[in-house]
Amino acid sequence: MAALAAVAEPEVENPEPSPLARVAISLADEGIPVRAIARATRISSSEVYEILREAILTGELLEMPKDDWPVGSNRAQRFALVGTILENDDALQLAVGRCFRATRLEAVILAVLIKRTEVTKKQLHLVIEQSRPSENREPTDPKMVDVMIHHVRRKLRPHGLELKTVWGLGYRLPVPDRDKAIEMLLNNVSTEEFKCQTQSSTKITSVPCSVPRLIPA
Is residue 120 in a domain? Predict the structure, then answer.
């Protein structure tokens, strides 16, 4: 009796997230709570949680956002950058560097603080690590966060802005200070100057158009 040839089953690849799922992941990465994402995308909260858990496993998302906005929170504050040229990370970092005369790394850190209500020291250390050149780099000491926060505070102080310490957690810009910083950035942004940056996926060190380069870190 002839032996039957074993048929190897094809490997099952993880399907690419749907466009709506990618929107949910992007909103979560900006700190938008799960239930707010569900309301905006018309996806159930349980499905949003499932999408975000998978994104965390694949490395697309750093952490799960909060469940929902605090009662009575200001909706305008949540979406201050949405729909503006500064919704793009590269454009925001460039604008921060120019407006506050920040170094490249200071601009990256300050942009994160502007886009999120609170940022942990662990998150900021990860931002520092990811912003450094990849070749032959050694891990930085977590105390580097304290050094960079000191420099960022010095850049904010002349503008009457104060970065608060959230003890046991990290740092935050109070709502009035964050509003003022965003207003300053929007007033200093030229749409024509930055518009090509919104479609760019290059690193901040590659500066297109007529945008001035940041002060070297």
Answer: yes
